[in-house]
Specification:
Elements: H1 9-25, E1 49-51, E2 61-62, H2 65-78, E3 86-92, E4 95-102, E5 105-111, E6 117-119, H3 122-125, E7 143-151, H4 153-165, H5 174-182, H6 187-192, E8 195-203, H7 209-218, E9 228-230, H8 233-246, E10 254-261, H9 264-270, E11 280-284, E12 289-301, E13 306-318, E14 321-327, H10 331-337, E15 344-348, E16 356-362, E17 383-384, E18 392-394, H11 400-411, H12 423-431, H13 446-450, H14 457-470, H15 475-481, H16 489-499, H17 502-507, H18 510-513, H19 521-532, H20 534-545, E19 565-569, H21 577-586, E20 590-592, E21 601-604, H22 610-618, E22 621-623, H23 625-632
Parallel strand pairs: 2-11, 19-20, 19-21, 21-22
Antiparallel strand pairs: 1-6, 3-9, 3-10, 4-5, 4-7, 7-8, 10-11, 12-13, 12-15, 13-14, 13-18, 15-16, 17-18
The chain binds 2-(butylsulfanyl)adenosine.
């Protein structure tokens, strides 16, 4: 009822089946309030309850091929060997909804409720774009579409991230999120969530289910396109297997396949039991959630230096695969889950290869809190969690876990431009122990290189020449090459231009660093941290010994715009961004990516957005393309900055 289940769906299904079996063996013990006696959740207080036009029934489940074939056998027997076909549809994992149209207009939407009486969620459903508010067809008749409201998987992940930031509990899965978004008292909440409605049932019904699906589309509703008519059980079984394989390719969750006898007249003859139709069955995919114990939490260091906590689990089979590890992403995630070592958790295997921990189901006894290590488990370098970042990182670029990435970045085009230094070679160099940090590249010799597999004298000679050439790289490239978090090509250029010397940058205080254009507190802190780390200090010393130039001659271009900083925003009528930038720079001006008090002009075109707002907020002068061209032109009096 509260959209916050305490056990897994699979556990619920198993208990439900057991109860059903017990009740049929001992009817004297079956009670009126048994969960087997109702179809859905009891309507929650707060919504108006409205009876359904006809009961919204549930479906019987087939948990494997055998049960599916048993269903088929029953159908064939009941139809007395008369020919028939199935319609197979995806079983969307959402929340069922009945949508009523009167006089061609969307009139009412009801959740399933207990199957007989639903909750009126009309105003909330009105915000779902895939529910048309008008239908051109059948304007004179009243009709009803039933279907499923689903939550897109990506939107679901984004929503949970937002909720984590806001300190709200995460939704367990997209279905609960769909329910939690539709069954809210404020329609604005529903509107803010990207829900989708897929229709699969039409009242009054046409002659067959396949016709109903086509007709629903005609009337403007969304119908999931992956349905198929199946001439017999073998085709149906194949369809189920196919989608069990492909389920992760869909943007939303499915938990099975629904098979329906196609012809309405045959459906009528097969009829219903108290709870479900005899003409349809839900083939459920195996559950991909199970409970297990977190035996330990270990930390892995990735290629970018990010430390990822990984849960070591008591091995458990989840949907046919044994799972013994699950990623925990970062410290915040562990906190959000309230997870301690020793706890029993629900693990889920979804589209991704790495299983995840959904929630803690029972606290362990004993249990032990996890703390992110203060030093890197691989190199013992300093671990830092930057403000506003979820990840903790090892900041030693020569950390063996980071080394390959560091070298690839160092050698990349636009950085040190070392042609021929690709993935495979870097693997060889690091794995053979020849290179333990970037400066080792400069100790490589022909002999050492030709010992490597697949490395001939000719390519080795070329490579050495390219490495040698990189020694004369100008300072901006060197700074970029260091791989300092938040310092890319552009910031490296600005730093070199502003300070003109690497030693000055390395020893500057944060405040001083922020003098540079586009360098805010975050970048300044990152720089300061980097140059304080002992490994990095010795790296800088070695680079100096190797003859890298730490000095940078600022070649100021002279022109009308000298000393002026511009920010471009929106689409200019004639100039492309690149054109405008090139023209400003060749007139001695600078182009910055963000508006600050250091900005002299914001050049705004059509569809200018946040930067324009920011300019207004800071009182920065806003000009158009025409005015920019005038400034670049000869009229130098116009460039004098306002005091
Ligand atoms: S037909 C009487 N078709 O699964 C027929 N149901 O376990 C009722 N569902 O209550 C449903 N996709 O919420 C049908 N293509 C589909 C479905 C589907 C998902 C849901 C629906 C239903 C439940 C039954």
């Amino acid at each position: 009822m509260l959209d916050a289940p305490e056990i897994t769906d699979a556990e619920y299904d198993a208990l439900f089946r057991e109860l059903k079996a017990l009740e049929s063996a001992h009817p004297e013990f079956a009670s009126d309030d048994s969960p087997t006696q109702r179809v859905g959740a009891t309507p929650r207080e707060g919504f108006v309850k409205v009876p359904h036009s006809s009961p919204m029934l549930s479906l019987d489940n087939a948990l494997n091929e055998e049960e599916l074939r048993a269903f088929d056998k029953r159908v064939r027997e009941l139809l007395g060997d008369e020919p028939f076909t199935y319609v197979a549809e995806l079983k969307l994992d959402g929340l069922s909804l009945a949508v009523h149209y009167r006089n061609g207009k969307f009139a009412q939407a009801l959740t399933r409720g207990d199957g007989t009486v639903g909750e009126d969620v009309t105003e909330n459903a009105r915000t779902i774009r895939s529910i048309p508010l008008k239908s051109r067809l059948h304007a004179q008749n009243d009709w009803e579409a039933r279907g499923e409201v689903v939550f897109n998987r990506k939107a679901f992940d984004a929503l949970n991230e937002e909720r984590a930031v806001a300190g709200l509990p995460a939704f367990v899965n997209p279905r609960n999120a769909a329910a939690g978004s539709l069954r809210v008292l404020d329609p604005a909440t529903t509107a803010a969530r990207k829900l989708e409605f897929f229709a699969y049932f039409l009242i009054p019904p046409p002659a067959s289910q396949s016709e109903a699906l086509r007709e629903l589309r005609e009337r403007g509703l969304k119908v999931n396109e992956h349905w198929r008519t199946c001439s017999d059980i073998d085709v149906l079984v194949a369809f189920c297997k196919e989608w069990e394989e492909k389920r992760d390719t869909l943007p939303f969750e499915i938990d099975g396949v629904v098979a329906k006898v196609d012809r309405f007249e045959q459906q009528q003859r097969l009829g219903w039991t108290a709870k479900a139709p005899r003409w349809a069955i839900a083939f459920k995919f195996p559950a991909r959630q199970e409970n297990t114990v977190v035996e330990n939490i270990e930390v892995q260091v990735g290629r970018t230096g990010a430390l990822t906590p990984v849960a070591h689990l008591r091995p458990v089979a989840v949907g046919g695969v044994t799972v013994s590890r699950a990623t925990l992403h970062n410290e915040d995630e562990i906190e959000r889950l309230g997870l301690h070592i020793g706890d029993t958790v629900l693990v889920e295997r979804s589209g991704d290869v790495i299983p995840k921990v959904v929630r803690v189901v029972a606290q362990g006894e004993p249990r032990r809190a996890f703390h992110m290590p203060k030093s890197c488990p691989v190199c013992e370098g300093e671990v830092v969690r930057a403000e506003g970042e979820a990840a903790s990182r090892c900041i030693n670029p020569n950390c063996p876990a980071r080394l390959k990435e560091t070298i690839l970045h160092w050698a990349a085009r636009g950085v040190m431009d070392i042609d021929g230094m690709g993935d495979a070679l870097v693997d060889q160099l690091v794995d053979s122990g020849l290179v333990r940090n970037v400066t080792d590249l400069y100790d490589l010799t022909l002999d050492k290189l030709t010992e490597l597999e697949r490395m001939g004298a000719k390519s080795a000679t070329k490579l050495l020449a390219n490495i040698e050439k990189s020694r004369s790289a100008p300072l901006p490239r060197l700074i970029n090459g260091l791989g300092i978090p938040f310092v890319g090509e552009r910031t490296a250029q600005i730093l070199a231009e502003t300070f003109g010397d690497l030693d000055k940058i390395a020893t500057a205080e944060e405040e001083e660093l922020q003098r540079a254009e586009e360098v805010g507190p975050k970048v300044a802190a990152s720089l300061r941290r980097f140059f304080h780390e002992p490994h990095n200090r010795s790296l800088i010393a070695k680079l100096r010994d190797l003859g890298f130039s730490f000095h940078y001659e600022i070649t100021r271009k002279s022109g009308n715009l000298e000393g002026l900083t511009f920010v471009l925003t929106g689409v200019l009528p004639h100039l492309t961004r690149e054109d405008a930038k090139a023209r400003i720079e060749s007139a001695g001006g600078k182009v910055s990516g963000s508006v600050s008090r250091k900005t002299r002009y914001v050049v705004a075109g059509e569809e200018a957005g946040a930067k324009l707002d920011k300019a207004r907020e800071l009182g920065v002068e806003v000009i158009d393309e025409q005015r920019l061209l005038e400034l670049i032109g000869t009229d130098s009096s116009a460039t004098a900055p306002a005091s």
